[in-house]
Structure to design on (684 residues):
């Protein structure tokens, strides 16, 4: 592990993406997303993606300077075409449309197609909650990554969900989880750190349990969390973001994953201030529960990420050596000099 | 266990509720709900509730003949006051409003307050999916039933979610789960059957693991499913149905749980027939996965309930002796004669 200051990583990532041909504005949105993911402790969605994203630009799978457009809309819905720019940009546009329509109409449903990898979903639910909008966002696909409950071959992606709910004086509630037991990015990270994954997360290519992260790229698969319940949510994510949202029909090919977003104004049924104040009360009730053996305190969803970000702003962001070496190699391939970290 | 034909249970339940003062129409909706839950194999939401519901009517906590009213609405939202009639009736009205508004506007959010116990959530998502509407319904509360992840005192109800998604020729997808590892009704049922509950579901009053269902009524608590993920969903259910929906402010007292429903027309982004046809394809992809060791086949959400209903229509519905004795005692208390089962 090497510790880097967030500003150093932001500057490095910015110079790499601009050298790869991205304009300043899309670079800024993308890099902010990556660094925020690392700060929050979700390194699986952070700078480890730089080499892959640069390769996608070089191979024409990502059009870094394309601008998302609205294909069709009503006062309560919109279908956004991401035009294969960075998914973090398309999903942000989709979220902003959902927030605006939820504020004006009360509730809105937005689909994003041709959107590539959108990164950490919690980014979008946080953005909405900050503006007083309850958000659900999901991205799901039928991909050979996760086995269904009771099966021994993969059929789902990691099909995550995120939800944001605005509080008053407390931090907003931010829920973000893969419907697989573990995120694919966390398996990549365990492999980079040369660590095992916990038992119950992976099957090998023959359908047998394993803790070796390399099994995933060798024909193995993830398991859904919570048995049939996680498997049901993985199914739902695929139906919402790849079937309800016409991702396959519109996007085609390997990049057919869509994004599905629902925004609900927190004031849809009564004054928003009362909703936010009662959210604080719910948070306080949960925080007042005495911890179980092995826990220091009960945490509310979103709290671990805020704690980690506070710590990493002070202490730096730990990056595995292999990950850093791959980023440096990508930079050198683009003729970008990497200054010594300070 | 005693096996009863569905028609016999329907007739018996109908005569009991009418003797308790319920008019034919609310009785019919309530009894259909209970029998459908038993047929689907979810006995926790079936006729075992008859004694409790009759007691609630006798004590004035349920007004069986009250009619739900819409307190406020827009083209995409409504707040329904259940007027403390049977929750199965209030939630059905809320669902019908959500379906109608989703069909006309594309998407709708509905809250139901003063709605008492609404029974099996899958009933409502099934109703919507049959009409080509994607539905999410949740009911959640801050109640001393389920511990948060990392805690040793209860703070949540069982806070379930259900989702419906329409298919074309295949059965619609119907997802329905408690965010606790096990539903409270299933613990009641295990107690009636004098069985244990599986390990990992319950803590006793001191926060220690137990498999004794009686622990729940002796100060014990349920655990959330899937660790922090289930705990997050339990938090979300409470925020959506008790805070966003102004259940506490509107309902007051012990019956303050609200219901939150989002309906989305399956044709919101493109022709509904394409969505339903692609849903069939997703179902077929899941069904094609070879079963893991210990499983005969991979099941899609909603399929186990349909199988059980087919079987129970033929073979009858099994009711534990204690449950049946309590129903008979309730009937006799109302002067209702119970004919011999045929």
């Amino acid at each position: 592990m090497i510790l880097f200051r967030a500003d150093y990583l932001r500057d490095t990532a910015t110079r790499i993406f601009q050298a790869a041909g991205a304009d300043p504005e899309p670079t800024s949105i993308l890099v902010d997303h990556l660094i925020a993911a690392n700060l929050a402790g979700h390194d699986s969605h952070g700078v480890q993606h730089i080499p892959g994203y640069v390769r996608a630009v070089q191979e024409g799978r990502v059009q870094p300077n394309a601008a998302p457009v609205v294909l069709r809309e009503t006062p309560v819905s919109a279908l956004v075409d991401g035009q294969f720019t960075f998914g973090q940009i398309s999903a942000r546009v989709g979220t902003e449309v959902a927030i605006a329509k939820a504020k004006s109409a009360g509730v809105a449903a937005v689909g994003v197609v041709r959107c590539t990898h959108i990164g950490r979903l919690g980014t979008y639910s946080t953005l909405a909650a900050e503006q007083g909008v309850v958000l659900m966002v999901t991205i799901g696909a039928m991909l050979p990554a996760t086995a269904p409950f009771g099966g021994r071959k993969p059929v789902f992606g990691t099909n995550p969900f995120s939800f944001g709910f605005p509080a008053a004086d407390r931090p907003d509630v931010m829920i973000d989880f893969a419907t697989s037991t573990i995120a694919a990015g966390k398996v990549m990270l365990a492999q980079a750190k040369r660590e095992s994954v916990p038992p119950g997360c992976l099957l090998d290519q023959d359908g047998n349990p394993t803790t070796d992260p390399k099994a995933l790229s060798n024909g193995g698969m993830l398991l859904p969390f919570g048995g049939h319940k996680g498997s049901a949510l993985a199914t739902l994510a695929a139906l919402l973001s790849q079937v309800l949202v016409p991702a396959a029909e519109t996007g085609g090919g390997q990049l057919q994953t869509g994004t599905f977003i629902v925004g609900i104004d927190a004031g849809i049924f009564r004054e928003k201030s009362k909703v936010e104040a009662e959210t604080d009360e719910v948070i306080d009730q949960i925080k007042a529960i005495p911890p179980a053996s092995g826990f220091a305190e009960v945490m509310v969803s979103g709290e671990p990420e805020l704690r980690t970000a506070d710590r990493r702003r002070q202490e730096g962001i730990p990056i595995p050596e292999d990950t850093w070496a791959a980023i440096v190699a990508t930079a050198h391939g683009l003729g970008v000099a990497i200054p010594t970290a300070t």
Q: What stands out?
A: Residues 67-180+224-288 of chain B form a domain with the Ribosomal Protein S8; Chain: A, domain 1 fold (CATH 3.30.1370.60). Chain B has two domains: 1-65+302-342, 67-180+224-288. Chain B touches chain A through 72 residues (CB under 8 Å).
